[in-house]
Amino acid sequence: MLFVFSAPSGSGKTTIVKEILKQYPEFRFSISATSRSKREIETDGKDYFFITREEFESKIKNDEFVEYELIYDNNYYGTLKSQVDECLSKGECMVFDMDVKGALSIKRIYGDKSLLIFVKPPSKEAIIERLKNRKTETEETLKKRIARIDFEMAKIGEFDYVVNNDDLQTAVEEAKKIINKYYIKEQK
Ligand code: 5GP
After folding, report:
1. What separation in Å is there between the alpha carbon of 188 and the centre of ligand 1?
2. pLDDT > 70: what percent of the chain?
3. Is residue 172 part of a domain?
4. Using CA positions, which residue lies closest to atom 16 of ligand 1?
5. Ligand 1 midpoint to CA 79 (Å)
6. Is any ligand 1 atom within 6 A of the Cβ of residue 8?
7. Which atom of ligand 1 is nearest to the CA of 32?
8. Residue 187 lies in a domain
9. pTM of the prediction?
10. Residue pLDDT, tens place only, 71-99
11. pLDDT one-digit tens code per residue, 123-132
């Protein structure tokens, strides 16, 4: 099963995904490739494969992506076929953190093998506040992220499930309930 988490930037989706991966250590995270620059707290090969724009474009030519998007005007983000194929061939569950367009592409390609979960923030203001507080963005990239919020929120109806992220712990519990409908942990 492919569990895909999506939400506008700043909704707390990455925090929820990290918490889910802690609680289901047997799940694999789909490490995307991106051409955006690495943040201080991120690790190459763990959070993303950080590559140059040229490397990304060469991978596009070589047909190495399941899907990719140009997000916030100039940064590529993409899911590598190698990541997903390996997981599916082993029958493992995989967790994705991606934008709404990417999530809908995964559904189109993998159908019932995928489950789309939208992480709904309490309000647009809450997202903006969060984006400002985490201090990872410049004035310009912040504006681009804010400009995309409405577009991403408008796709909520196309998702299989919505998790309200008013409170992190409750959101994680909601996400676990959804996952447990489709996945039964093996007893050791
Ligand atoms: P950030 O720069 O904040 O890490 O990510 C920006 C957006 O790109 C987020 O919505 C994130 O979920 C999304 N994203 C990350 N990896 C992928 C990917 O492989 N494909 C797509 N379509 N979006 C991605």
Report:
1. 35
2. 98
3. yes
4. 98
5. 9
6. no
7. 19
8. no
9. 0.94
10. 987 899 999 999 999 999 999 999 999 99
11. 999 999 998 9
11 lines ligand 1 (CB under 6 A): no
How far, in Å, is the centroid of ligand 1 from the Cα of 105? Answer: 13
The separation between the first and the last C-alpha atoms of the chain, rounded to the nearest angstrom, is 21
Residue whose structure tokens are 């709404």: 100
Calpha distance 162→52 (Å, rounded): 34
35 lines ligand 1 (CB under 6 A): no
Task: Tell me the pLDDT of the chain averaged across its residues.
Answer: 94
* Beta partners for residue 32, in sequence order: 48
Structure-block tokens of residue 126: 């809450």
Number of domains in the chain: 1
How much is the pLDDT for 80?
A: 97
> Contact 10/145 with Cβ under 8 angstroms?
yes
CB atoms within 10 A of CB 177: 11
Does residue 174 sit within a domain?
yes
112 CA distance to ligand 1 centroid (A)? 22
- Residue 12 Cα to ligand 1 midpoint, Å, equals 13
Q: What pLDDT is stored for residue 188 in this prediction?
A: 52
CATH code where residue 15 lies? 3.40.50.300
Going by CA atoms, what residue is nearest to atom 2 of ligand 1?
36
Tokens encoding 187: 């007893």
Model confidence at 34, pLDDT cuts 50, 70, 90, reads very high
